[in-house]
């Protein structure tokens, strides 16, 4: 409830009226009690509990991490995506809140009914396309002149990105997302009635030096069959069910012991110029940075793990481990 702050002159006038009998304090108190009515807007019916909103936020926090990894690998630049907010609003309000021209991807998520909208700020979308085409990731928006090639690139990229939505939801329900529509004008998207409640999860997105928002709009009809699963009680039950079966740990350990990893002995390293590299020929010698009597670095994968010395076993080259390297593989041995 909003509170109005009175000025000193208004307070003095109120006290004067009370003392002069022009106003009755008991009547004011009674009138205030009668006005204690909570306003409820039936056009903005709250159909999701706070617990369910928190669960949806948790799901999309996982999705944002998956998107960060995916876009970082595809674009080879700095990408940071995080959940900014999760709100339930009427569908009409969501449509009014986004730009008249933007990037709209409509997905079906069977076996759930209905469709989900993924709205991407045009600056973010163009930064993605620019990076994919070898540019610096400029976010200059030209959405009104979207070419067929740009449309195909965007739709393919966002369809592959939204594939990770399946992984984000796997602890609650198994879905199979598929892109059904690509649109730039939100007025053409009349999926549900204007007053239908939707959940809008907004993701803060940074790609290089470009910032923008990605909004995911989920209608109530999509989530209705799984609402009981969007609760802390369900998450706790799911965690209990995930307890390991008897013997599962032993099987896992056995499989890990049988896993093969590459082990390499590094004789040394050297730096040469491109010109020297291009003129290398058979018989040329490259001087290493390690002397012949110094120990070798032994790596498991790409991680330095041991120190060894070269030798022979049954007329074959071999390396004897003489010590371990502190800090190798996070000090786990």
Summarize this, please?
By secondary structure, the protein is α+β, with helices and mostly antiparallel strands. The chain has helices spanning 8-19, 25-34, 50-75, 91-97, 122-132, 148-162, 165-169, 220-223, 232-241, 248-258, 274-278, and strands at residues 79-90, 103-108, 115-120, 178-183, 197-207, 210-219, 263-266, 296-300, 303-313, 316-324. It folds into 3 domains: 15-40; 50-238, CheC-like (Chemotaxis protein chec, 3-Layer(aba) Sandwich); 260-331, SpoA-like (Surface presentation of antigens (SPOA)).
Write the layout of secondary structure elements.
Layout: H1 8-19, H2 25-34, H3 50-75, E1 79-90, H4 91-97, E2 103-108, E3 115-120, H5 122-132, H6 148-162, H7 165-169, E4 178-183, E5 197-207, E6 210-219, H8 220-223, H9 232-241, H10 248-258, E7 263-266, H11 274-278, E8 296-300, E9 303-313, E10 316-324
Antiparallel strand pairs: 1-5, 2-3, 2-4, 3-6, 5-6, 7-8, 8-9, 9-10
